[in-house]
Design a protein that fits this description.
The complex is a heterodimer of chains A (243) and B (519). Chain A is an alpha+beta fold and 243 residues long. In chain A, 35% of the residues lie in helices and 12% in strands. Chain A has a five-stranded antiparallel sheet with strand order 4-3-2-1-5, with no helix packed on it. Chain B has 519 residues and is mainly beta. Classes of the chains: A alpha+beta (243), B mainly beta (519). Chains A and B meet through helix 3, helix 5, helix 9 and helix 11 of A and strand 14, strand 29, strand 30 and strand 35 of B.
Chain lengths: 243, 519
């Protein structure tokens, strides 16, 4: 798939596995159709209905309802004389399952903690204080106190690996030897600009000045080629204890 | 010349005499100069122009010739230029504009459902344009005024198909691909009659159960009939071998390898097809059993050059998985596989020239750190090959990403996702003989999707990730010209010469800029 920049995800109802009330039509589908098509409609003795062209082309039951009522005797599917309301509920369930498949790339704050917790918190603490050198900048009783309460589990894991907010400071040395420091506004191959402590904006051509960059997150970027997956999961398990 | 092409050249050539403004098919067989008649400029996919009016000695005087404001979403297409008219697109829209002045000739709008992520452009045959739409239709438009001549459905948008690519015209074939993203549908390539739109052949990415290649999918499963493999991009063509070369996309469900054990042919592959029949001649698979969305749809670039001390007909691809491949395009024999960017997902190259994926780097519920991420070490943006220097150029990215597999039952669709942790872009010049990086030019933070053009003027045109258009020395990577264009380039540059003046056209967001020397 070619998505280069953003994933435009379809917002979907959270799925049944996440302990919320069963969606409309699920029970009816499981009772009447589940034995052959699977309780989640992904197929068993009979085809996967989430991938079914007929289901995908259906509008409000115009294609699905006749199949339920009439069956497909040539393929061994019996006619099911269900009440109209039950059929509409089953139709709604199938459309919801299609939406769930379409939204299967959506991962967010409701991602279950237990799936992420495969590491060992003690090993994570040892990494934090040892090989990972996290403790040279961070403290479990200082900046990270209660961090696991602040972020949903998935976001905690991602921010641990790639904190998104940091002030990058530049020091520019002009041809006359003057040093000017401030928050980076822009830096590319050709120009550099910053905002000084008084709030004034300055810019220079890159080839006229020397630029030194202080990026507190640079070490996080470098660590991305150092971590093993076990380091990540252990460290995450440790941060999850900071509540 | 192939007999079909020769016949077509004669037939279409006589039609041309009456109408004068259509595309003479002979132009498709020449390096692009006064005409840029197909997505990549010519059939080779090299995006190397023999024009040299704009060159290393005068580049510092390059100036704006005109700009065209489309007031549209980002232009990702490469314009065609035929007889002084440029034809370019964004999803749902086609423009014809004067290639000398940037003034609009006509604009066509086709309101459509379906994914609008981007659009690469049109194809041309005689007086007719071929345009794919977000609802996966193929339209033939009259190049004079944009009127629709016919409209056929390539695939059903209700099943999740859409279309973004610029078709390829070979002889009397319009070869069109399709796109898809979240749904588990089979990819295919279709050839239609340029006059009528009638289907000539269709080649499915997945073989039918029982055919060669089907053994690379699980038996007693519907996986092979829902296996993805979209034909996102325009292929290339060798008239002497009479083969088209096409890259195919990732298998579906996207991240769910356990649902489809095996190599999953012909997804993430480079395939050689007979353009008259759609029959497969050979294949090579850059990413067997992909679980990271690493389409192999990047341009299969064709050139003839020495390899290992012998002159060979070569095909090179810098693939989304971070590896550069060189093949013998007569038979698909692999000659070289080398990384063009750092990666952590493979244990090496196997005897067939394919990277071997590490099982532990497949997506998992607890998250696995993989680079490159799904956006890829490169992507659809055009690479370029400079035959004078023997260098292959690619916009490469360091993308670090964490992959989550989320399905608990039977996986469908993506079955998870990766989230980016960091991105940087860099342009790399690769020596095709060794795969070694000759030079590297950093393009800044973020994921650049700018393409590349090289010219006989010893120039390389591209953009960085910060809104600068760049011209580099193709031998060294040093910047020789730049301008802040007000936004990043999401397209690939092209060039042509009219009335003795060379123009370079670059799309930046919704604006086309034409650069030239002062008059």
């Amino acid at each position: 798939m070619i998505r280069s920049l953003l994933c435009f995800c379809v917002a979907v109802a959270a799925c049944a596995q996440q302990h919320i009330p069963a969606p409309r039509g699920q029970k009816e589908f499981a009772q009447s159709c589940g034995f052959c098509h699977g309780e989640d409609a992904t197929g068993a003795r009979a085809p996967d209905l989430v991938r079914s062209p007929l289901v995908n082309r259906d509008t409000d039951g115009d294609l699905i309802a006749p199949v339920i009522r009439g069956g497909r005797p040539d393929k061994g599917m019996p006619a099911l004389p269900l009440p109209d309301q039950t059929i509409q509920d089953i139709v709604a369930f199938l459309h919801m399952r299609v939406k769930q498949a379409e939204g299967s790339a959506r991962i967010g704050g409701d991602y279950p903690l237990e799936r992420l917790l495969t590491g060992n918190a003690d090993a994570g603490r040892a990494y934090f204080n040892g090989a990972g050198k996290c403790s040279s900048c961070h403290s479990p009783t200082g900046d990270l106190a209660g961090i696991a309460k602040k972020y949903a589990p998935l976001y905690l894991e991602e921010r641990m690996l790639a904190p998104r907010r940091a002030v990058v400071t530049l020091t520019v040395t002009t041809p006359s030897g003057q040093h000017i420091s401030g928050r980076m506004v822009h830096l590319d191959e050709f120009s550099v600009s910053l905002r000084d402590s008084d709030g004034w904006y300055h810019s220079w051509p890159r080839d006229r000045v020397k630029v030194s960059v202080q990026d507190p997150l640079q070490i996080h970027r470098e660590m991305l080629t150092q971590y093993t997956d076990a380091d990540i999961h252990n460290l995450f398990a440790y941060l999850e204890t900071l509540r | 010349m192939n007999p079909n092409l020769a016949r077509c050249a004669v037939l279409c050539g006589s039609a041309m005499a009456a109408l004068a403004q259509g595309l003479n098919p002979a132009a498709l067989l020449k390096p692009p100069t006064d005409t840029w008649p197909t997505y990549n400029g010519d059939y080779s996919g090299r995006r190397y122009s023999p024009l040299q009016q704009i060159n290393a000695s005068n580049i510092r005087s390059l100036t704006l010739a005109w700009a065209f404001q489309a007031n549209s979403q980002a232009i990702k297409s490469t314009p065609l230029e035929v007889n002084g008219i440029l034809y370019f697109t964004v999803p749902e829209h086609v423009w014809a504009i004067d290639a000398r002045t940037g003034r609009q000739v006509w604009h066509y709008h086709y309101k459509s459902e379906g994914d609008h992520i981007g659009h690469r452009g049109v194809a041309m045959w005689g007086n007719w344009l071929y345009f794919e739409t977000p609802d996966a239709h193929l339209l033939s438009l009259d190049a004079r005024d944009g009127h629709v001549r016919w409209n056929i459905m390539l695939a059903d948008a209700k099943l999740g198909y859409f279309a973004t690519m610029a078709p390829l015209v070979v002889g009397n074939h319009v070869i069109a691909g399709v796109s898809g993203d979240v749904t588990d549908i089979p990819g295919f390539l279709e050839s239609v009659d340029p006059e009528t739109g009638k289907q000539q052949w269709r080649w499915y990415t997945e073989p039918q159960p029982g055919e060669p290649g089907s053994e690379t999918w699980p038996r007693h499963s519907d996986a092979i009939t829902h296996g993805g493999g979209m034909t996102w991009m325009t292929g290339t063509y060798d008239p002497a071998l009479h083969l088209v070369f096409w890259g195919t996309g990732n298998p579906n469900p996207v991240l769910a390898g356990d649902a489809r054990p095996g190599d999953n042919l012909y997804t993430c592959s480079i395939v050689a097809l007979n353009p008259d029949t759609g029959k497969l001649a050979w294949y090579f698979q850059p990413s067997p059993h992909d679980t990271h969305d690493w389409d192999a749809v990047e341009t299969p670039v064709l050139f003839d050059a020495d390899f290992g001390g012998k002159p060979r007909k070569l095909l090179a691809q810098a693939s989304r998985n971070g590896f550069f491949f060189v093949l013998d395009r007569t038979n698909g024999e692999h000659l070289l596989a080398a990384p063009f960017i750092e990666s952590n997902w493979t244990s090496g190259i196997d005897a067939r020239g394919r990277p071997v994926a590490l099982k532990e780097k497949e997506p998992h519920a607890d998250g696995r750190l993989v680079y490159p991420g799904s956006d890829g070490a490169t992507n659809w943006m055009a690479p370029s090959f400079d035959p004078a220097l023997g260098l292959f150029y690619v916009v490469a990215r360091r993308v670090y990403s964490i992959f989550y597999y989320t399905a608990t039952g039977k996986p469908e669709g993506w079955a998870g996702r990766d989230h980016n942790l960091a991105e940087e872009s860099t342009l790399r010049a690769i020596d095709y003989r060794t795969g070694k990086i000759r030079w590297n030019h950093e393009l800044g933070p973020g994921e650049s999707i700018a393409g590349i053009l090289t010219t006989a003027g010893n120039l390389l045109f591209t953009g960085d990730s910060q809104g600068n258009l760049l011209v580099l020395d193709p031998a060294t990577g040093k910047t020789v010209w730049h301008v802040n264009a007000g936004g990043p380039m999401f397209s690939s540059p092209m060039t042509y010469e009219l009335d003795g003046r060379q123009y370079v056209v670059e799309g930046v967001q919704g604006v086309l800029y034409a650069w030239a020397l002062p008059e």
